[in-house]
Amino acid sequence: MEELLKKYWEGTSTEEEKKRLLQLLEKREVRHFQKLKSEFELNAYSSSNSSKEEKFKIILKELHQKISEQKKKEKIRKHRFLYKIAAAVLVIFTIGFVALQNSNSNLPEISETQLTVIENPHQDKMMFFEMEDGSKVKLFPNSKIKYDLGYGNQNRNVKLIGKGYFKVAKNPELPFVVESKDYYTTALGTAFTVDGRSDTIQIQLIEGKIVVNSSDKSKSRFSAIYLSPGEKLIIDEISDRQRHFQPQKSAKVQSTYETSAMEIEKGVEILKFKKENLSEVLRQLSKIYKKKITYNADELEGLTFTGDLYIQDELNHSIQTLCELNELKFTEKANEILIEK
């Protein structure tokens, strides 16, 4: 029967095959669907037996109703109505299967069919674009995102390969979800970066609030981890460890490196800033890393930075973060970094 349905769906059925399919739907649908039920349960996500039984009974009941209606039609309309029956079989069964998947999986999954793919193929250039919902994305070199046709209406789920920065448009009805290596970062309206280019996945929150979850497929499993502004999560799949860098709330924020709090937490130095002039942030970085940073002071006028910079990161990583947030560009030379608009 599966082959007959497939041929009818493709428009290649003969008149004899159409009649045969109609007979099967009218007289043998119960036995056929018992077979489909077994396959359905084998492939579905785990759930209670009672839950699966109830869902399947609903699907079967709707199918029977369709067939009962068909018997009342005139014979000359059988072939035209067969399309509706075949469509009902496929659509109802698909809806039931998807519903069961969704009810038993607490994390969203992005189908690999009918995906929109945006890729940054450049080796040294950032790509900037805006999503349909107004969310802004900055893709790092050799990175890409994928999302399905339901984005913006049914969901806001994107799959990231590489590294991306996301400035999320607020929409309480549709959380923004980034999947990277089977880990999920969920936000309502915020700005954050996700970097999955190596054996570690690094997630840093710039503003707002996000929650990070592992999935059944994740190599490193953990309960939900919430991040606040300035916090950073590093997931190491090799050692199966998660490092959550959480600045001490009692630390006093200062405006110069000489007196600012260099916090030591889990062996990591953190440089904190709150609405600090960008030129001052760059001055401190230049002193810490002992590298000249050149810029036009007029171009940086009025630009500030709030957040944490991690001293264990390479200088160009911190510079890149600052430039991304302020729509600046930078060029790295042997003994100097040049920043410009």
Automatic annotation (TrEMBL):
GO molecular function: any one?
A: sigma factor antagonist activity
Where are the membrane-spanning stretches? Answer: 81-100
**What's in the keyword line of the UniProt record?**
Membrane, Transmembrane, Transmembrane helix
Instruction: Identify the Pfam families for this entry.
Output: FecR (PF04773), FecR_C (PF16344)
Per UniProt, residues of the FecR protein domain are 129-210
Q: What region holds the Protein FecR C-terminal domain?
A: 271-339
Q: Out of the domains of life, which is the source?
A: Bacteria
Keyword check for rRNA processing: no
* Gene3D superfamilies xrefs: 2.60.120.1440, 3.55.50.30
Which protein are we looking at? FecR family protein
